[in-house]
Amino acid sequence: MATVAELAGVTIKRGNNVLLDRISLIIHEDERWVVVGPNGAGKTTLLQVLSAQMYPSDGVVGLLGEVVGAVDVFELRPRIGLTSLALAERIPPREKVRDVVLSAAYGVIGRWREEYDVYDEARADDLLGSLRVDRLSSRTFGTLSEGERKRVQIARALMTDPEMLLLDEPASGLDIAGREALVDTLSEICLDEDSPATVLVTHHLEEIPEGITHALLLRQGLVVAAGPVETTLTDENLSATFDMPLAVSHRDGRWGARSRR
Ligand SMILES: Nc1ncnc2c1ncn2[C@@H]1O[C@H](COP(=O)(O)OP(=O)(O)OP(=O)(O)O)[C@@H](O)[C@H]1O
């Protein structure tokens, strides 16, 4: 299987803070990763590295066969789909939903005067359909519920047919029904062998969709454990990650965690 990302000894420093500390990681195209760790562990920073938005202070980042730093990142970035709160906040509230998705084809946020071809328009409509928000395509982004916005952002991230899909807390802020429906949709994406390699950051094991194959546990910028999800998401590893005794459960395809105190 082809490698889509390879991090070797990657360190990110800001001032005296070490955000990521000598991270080494290989992601193959058929893998779907979940990244778990406490607030401030470096999860979002890792996604920034994987989306070529951030350069390492030390170490080497290989993405889609290119070395970051030795390649034009503007050619690399369209090959990687990203959803994050920071990106969502940059979407103009008056932007039409269909244009939020369509404008990804040009790597811009906010439609201006681009001419889109029929192929792009059909793809945007298909994605809105598969994310089950096609009925909202002529609404403005600012009028959507949180759950609807998350779906539109995922459709946007998939618009360029990326080779890697990065999802930063896609279910945060959703109610139970919204979360469950989104986890189902994410499961469909993760289980589809035509989907790109996926890395999903979450705070809650309940939000891990079926089809996730690997897990990375981060604490204070360091990898606590990484590997196949079944052998990585253990009581011992999760307890070490959050510095409290935790019990992991895995029933009917769904993960969970609770205190052992
Ligand atoms: N520019 C910066 N300068 C200094 N420290 C920073 C900077 N950016 C981020 N940090 C720190 O780096 C650490 C990792 O941040 P990051 O956003 O990657 O964590 P996270 O695991 O995604 O956290 P959360 O779960 O709270 O979203 C945090 O302690 C944060 O305060």
Number of strands: 12
Helix percent reads 25-40%
Instruction: Write down the CATH class.
Output: Alpha Beta
Give me the strand/helix succession. Answer: EEEHEEHEHHHHEHEEEHHEE
- Give the termini distance in whole angstroms: 42 Å
Task: Give a summary of the structure in a few sentences.
The protein has 261 residues and is an alpha/beta fold. Helix content is 30%, strand content 30%.
Task: Set down the secondary structure blueprint.
Layout: E1 3-14, E2 17-28, E3 32-36, H1 43-50, E4 58-63, E5 66-67, H2 73-76, E6 80-83, H3 85-89, H4 97-102, H5 118-130, H6 146-158, E7 164-168, H7 176-191, E8 197-202, E9 214-219, E10 222-228, H8 229-232, H9 235-242, E11 246-251, E12 254-259
Parallel strand pairs: 3-8, 3-9, 6-7, 7-8
Antiparallel strand pairs: 1-2, 1-4, 4-5, 9-10, 11-12
Helix pairs in contact: 5-6
The protein binds adenosine-5'-triphosphate.
Adenosine-5'-triphosphate is lined by residues 14-15, 17, 19, 37, 39-45.
